[in-house]
């Protein structure tokens, strides 16, 4: 059974940075494309970033491009999301996901496994 466990969320001020981690167990990590999505209260889940099995290519939502960086360490079965210059509108629960396709990287329905989410709150 594949399990994803996110960590690294928290409460920060606008302009600060956070790094989210997602540890994957129970599967062959290097076989999975990985993604990050987020969901704010009252809003739909939205794509944030995705990374292929090899680490390249990577894709980002326009709203985070230039501020967020997705990366993976296949030796540690972990994917990361480095978030810089955080804004209040980045406040959401962030979810790690595995098993998607780079063809449909922004479609959450294409992913097979999900973590429980980690809260990121950015105050102004």
Q: Tags for this entry?
A:
124 residues, single chain, mainly beta, 0% helix, seven-stranded mixed β-sheet
The run of helices and strands is EEEEEEEEEEE
Q: What does the oligomeric state look like here?
A: single chain
CA radius of gyration is 13 Å
Number of strands: 11
User: Which blocks of ≥5 consecutive residues have pLDDT under 50?
Assistant: none
The biggest beta sheet is recorded as: 7 strands, mixed
Q: In what range is the share of β-strand residues?
A: over 45%
**End-to-end span in angstroms?**
40 Å
Helix-strand makeup class: mainly beta
Overall helicity: under 10%
- Gross morphology is globular
In DSSP terms (H or I, runs of 4 or more residues), the helix count works out at: 0
Mean pLDDT: 96
Written account of the structure:
The protein is mainly beta and 124 residues long. Helices cover 0% and strands 50% of the residues. The protein has strands spanning 3-7, 10-13, 18-25, 33-39, 46-51, 58-60, 68-73, 78-83, 92-100, 113-114, 118-123. The strands form two sheets. Strands 2, 4, 5, 6, 9, 10 and 11 form a seven-stranded mixed sheet that branches. A four-stranded antiparallel sheet has the order 1-3-8-7, with no helix packed on it. The relative contact order is 0.31. The model has no long low-confidence stretch (mean pLDDT 96).
Provide a short characterization of the protein structure.
This protein is mainly β and 124 residues long. The chain is 0% helix and 50% strand. Strands 2, 4, 5, 6, 9, 10 and 11 form a 7-stranded mixed beta sheet that branches.
Secondary-structure blueprint:
Blueprint: E1 3-7, E2 10-13, E3 18-25, E4 33-39, E5 46-51, E6 58-60, E7 68-73, E8 78-83, E9 92-100, E10 113-114, E11 118-123
Parallel strand pairs: 2-11
Antiparallel strand pairs: 1-3, 3-8, 4-5, 4-9, 5-6, 7-8, 9-10, 9-11
């Amino acid at each position: 059974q594949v399990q994803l466990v996110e960590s690294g969320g928290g409460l920060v001020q606008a302009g600060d940075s956070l790094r989210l981690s997602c540890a994957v167990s129970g599967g062959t990590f290097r076989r999975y494309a990985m993604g990050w999505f987020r969901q704010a209260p009252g809003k739909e889940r939205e794509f944030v970033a995705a990374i292929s099995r090899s680490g390249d290519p990577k894709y980002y939502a326009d709203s985070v491009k230039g501020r967020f960086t997705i990366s993976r360490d296949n030796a540690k079965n972990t994917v990361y999301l480095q978030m810089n210059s955080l804004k209040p509108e980045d406040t959401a629960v962030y979810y790690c996901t595995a098993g998607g396709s780079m063809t449909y990287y922004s479609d959450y329905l294409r992913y097979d496994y999900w973590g429980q989410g980690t809260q990121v709150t950015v105050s102004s």
